[in-house]
Design brief:
It contains four helices and five strands, in the order βαβαβαββα. By secondary structure, it is of the alpha/beta class.
């Protein structure tokens, strides 16, 4: 699966409807990694190929999305995105998401995916 672009409406429909629900709840089939980026952002451009590689490596285990913060300001606001790139890791089973800012190297992203999405629990207050 390639990295898919994600809008606020798709997020509300398929992941979590923050407009209707107060308490976080996600019970999707697979954990999710969301890359919050902007087209003009140099570090975002650096990590984009890494995110594509990871999407291929974790195909069928983790879903990968991209959110353009210039176009999806509502979704960026909901997650409190203050710098880009920022990665949001959403585990399955209703566990809280984790946000990690910065242009992380591939190994760091893999470590978070393995530890927090595929075997651990994490917390982000949204």
């Amino acid at each position: 699966m390639a990295v898919k672009k994600l809008t606020a409406e798709e997020f509300k429909k398929n992941i979590f409807n923050y407009a209707l629900l107060k308490d976080w709840s996600y019970n999707g089939e697979r954990p999710i990694v969301i890359d919050f980026y902007a087209d003009w952002c140099g570090p975002c451009k650096m990590v984009a190929p890494i995110v594509e590689e990871l999407a291929k490596e974790y195909e069928g285990k983790v879903d990968f999305y991209k959110v353009d913060t210039d176009k999806e300001t509502e979704l960026a606001y909901v997650f409190g995105i203050r710098s880009i790139p920022t990665f949001v890791f959403i585990p399955k089973g209703g566990k809280q998401p984790l946000a990690q800012p910065g242009a992380l190297p591939k190994e760091a992203l893999k470590q978070i995916i393995e530890k927090e999405l595929l075997s651990g629990s994490i917390i982000l207050d949204i």
